[in-house]
UniProtKB/TrEMBL annotation, chain A:
One of its GO terms (biological process) is transmembrane transport. It is found in: Cell membrane. This is Carbohydrate ABC transporter membrane protein 1, CUT1 family. The keyword Transmembrane applies. It comes from the Bacteria. It comes from Consotaella salsifontis.
TrEMBL record, chain B:
Residues 74-265 form the ABC transmembrane type-1 domain. It is found in: Cell membrane. Gene3D superfamilies: MetI-like (1.10.3720.10). Pfam families: BPD_transp_1. One of its GO terms (cellular component) is plasma membrane. GO terms for biological process: transmembrane transport. It is a multi-pass membrane protein. SUPFAM superfamilies: MetI-like (SSF161098). Signal peptide: none annotated. This is Carbohydrate ABC transporter membrane protein 2, CUT1 family. Its main location: membrane. The lineage of its organism: Bacteria, Pseudomonadati, Pseudomonadota, Alphaproteobacteria, Hyphomicrobiales.
């Protein structure tokens, strides 16, 4: 050992811009919010109340009922995405990555179109299409002789959340598709050729070889879906409004936070209770991400090609 | 050439599934677009038919164009999105390179610190962000949106890009070092071109939430001169809920520029993906 290593300034240069912007605009305001959940605001200023706001959220029956309702709805919203969006995305990517597929660029471009649209557009478009007033959905079902199946899904308590979950799947299926597609393309030819020499082709090749190799990407997609769903707000807000109707059946944590934070109708906005809900969302997401980082990601084998 | 990969039934089945999904993906958009060119009776009488000579009408577009300044909104959205993406990609790739390439004290901790932002809905910090922007006089400027979106996009960009940078061969970088390239040159000349496909992917994932965001334009930059397309469309549609012609036309006007932008951009994207990944 010949003395200390020189300071490697380039590491600091590479890290500095990202870390500075990220810290100033994201981390510090986040801690500001967590801090806010420990205070109570009044016209005279704010007073430290410890965990009182959390006690209200879980202790007051009215608050607790809303919170658990939003959490349960949010969980169902996430399950829909995991069961529908990600398998469909993987299937589409697997079909697209077939080396001799024609019109590949067309399919890829077309299927990604909904993903580029804003929630405002998607919310309104589906609201119009599913509207019994307009009748696009009933006349479409009529083409297949299924008109009897139609009901105003967005207006029914038992269907509204599932319908919106599927609308969200419709919008976002392009993201898992693109990520898996890129992962599939990066599998080297040699591995595929070796598999073909061993007689493993087609569907078997996908299950036995490719799927194992893209597991890290599937892990990333799952955690992105989790985080995205537990932050969701915009689609529900544009389709059903801040009240997440009918009768709060589509209320998720994001809309619950919004109503609490900014108020609605007769209730006045409460930044401190809003910050409390935001903190709960933060903890829920933190648990999910830790689970992924420490339990799942470590078990995935990484291949360097 | 193995028989299984070129079997015609398999290929027909694959096309069948892809066509079916393409129809599902495009149908709602097409319904909105064709109905925006019809008069009110035709919209309700036969929503699935194309506009004919009798049913053709531009009344919705006339209403919309009289009301909103969509060109300006579009320009604002474009500036905010493009500048944010460039900053996210540049700063994100630099940080990802530092984290995946060098061993230094605090590396893991720094990685976790930056990854924290993937799960933080930046909305949670809205009140403090608004205070910050008020204090620095950036309210109602596009700069405030660019700063927020850069901060929002960085964590995911760093996360995905370092996953990809770990796959860049060490031999190549070491060969560069032996040839006397500085660390900066190794990053810009050797590593960046190799991860370009993943940069394109990150760019798309960064672009979508920025372009579509309603929350921050509403809170940080609601002024007429800084409105984005999403905010403009939302406000407009809110005003004209019962005027179906206007709503359909406004939706179409919000869809079309993005669609055109996407079709132009997707060629770059596909070229980016295929340049690295397809052999």
């Amino acid at each position: 050992m010949a003395g200390k290593k020189p300071i490697r300034w380039h590491i600091a240069v590479f890290l500095a811009p990202a870390v500075l912007i990220y810290t100033a605009i994201m981390i510090l305001p986040l801690f500001g919010t967590l801090e806010l959940s420990l205070f109570h605001s009044s016209p005279d200023g704010r007073t430290f109340v410890g965990l009182d706001n959390f006690r209200t959220l879980f202790g007051d029956p009215r608050w607790a009922a809303s919170f658990w309702n939003a959490l349960a709805n949010n969980t169902w919203f996430f399950i829909i995405h995991m069961l529908v969006q990600n398998p469909v995305g993987i299937l589409l990517a697997a079909l697209l990555s077939h080396p001799k597929l024609r019109f590949r660029a067309f399919y890829r471009t077309a299927i990604f179109v909904p993903t580029i649209l804003s929630f405002v557009i998607v919310g309104f478009v589906w609201k119009l299409i599913l509207s019994p007033l307009w009748g696009v959905a009933p006349s479409l079902l009529d083409l297949f002789g299924l008109k009897a199946l139609f009901s105003p899904w967005l207006g029914k308590e038992e269907y509204a959340l599932t319908a919106l979950g599927l609308v969200s799947v419709w919008q976002f299926v392009g993201i898992p598709m693109m990520l898996i597609y890129a992962a599939l393309l990066s599998i080297p030819d040699e591995i595929i050729e070796a598999a073909e020499i061993d007689g493993i082709t087609g569907v078997a090749q996908f299950w036995k070889i490719k799927l194992r190799l893209i597991l890290p990407s599937i892990g990333i997609i799952s955690i992105l879906t989790f985080v995205g769903n537990f932050n969701a707000f915009d689609l529900i807000y544009s389709a059903q409004g801040a009240l997440a109707g009918p009768n709060f059946s589509t209320d998720i944590l994001g809309t619950f936070l919004y109503r609490t934070f900014f108020g609605f109708q007769l209730q006045i906005g409460d930044p401190n209770m809003g910050a409390t809900i935001a903190s709960m969302m933060f903890f829920i997401i933190l648990v999910g991400v830790c689970l992924y980082l420490f339990a799942i990601q470590r078990r995935l084998r990484r291949y360097q090609f | 050439m193995s028989k299984a990969t070129s079997s015609p039934t398999r290929s027909i089945a694959a096309h069948g599934v892809l066509i079916l999904y393409t129809v599902i993906a495009l149908f709602p958009v097409i319904v909105i677009l064709i109905n925006s060119f019809k008069n009110r009776q035709a919209i309700f009488r036969s929503p699935l038919s194309l506009p004919g000579p009798e049913s053709f009408s531009l009344i919705g577009y006339q209403t919309v164009l009289k009301q909103g300044d969509f060109l300006l909104y579009f320009e604002n959205s474009l500036i905010v999105t493009v500048v944010s993406i460039v900053l996210v990609l540049l700063f994100g790739a630099m940080a990802a390179f530092a984290l995946s390439e060098y061993r230094f004290r605090g590396n893991t901790l720094m990685g976790l610190y930056l990854a924290l932002g993937i799960m933080i809905p930046i909305r949670l910090g809205t009140v403090a962000i608004l205070q910050l922007m008020v204090a620095s006089g950036l309210v109602n400027t596009l700069t405030s949106l660019i700063l927020v979106y850069t901060a929002q996009g960085l964590p995911l960009a760093v996360f995905i890009l370092s996953e990809f940078m770990k796959q860049v061969s060490d031999d190549l970088k070491n060969a560069g070092r032996i040839d006397g390239l500085s660390e900066y040159r190794i990053f810009f000349r050797l590593v960046l071109p190799l991860v370009r496909p993943s940069m394109a992917t990150v760019a798309v994932f960064t672009m979508i939430p920025i372009w579509n965001d309603l929350w921050f334009p509403l809170i940080l930059a609601p002024a007429e001169s800084t409105k984005t397309v999403t905010l403009g469309a939302q406000m407009f549609i809110g005003q004209f809920v019962t005027n179906w012609n206007a709503v359909l036309a406004a939706l179409s006007l919000a869809i079309l520029p993005v669609l055109i932008l996407y079709l132009i951009f997707s060629r770059q994207l596909i070229r980016g993906i295929t340049a690295g990944a397809v052999k």
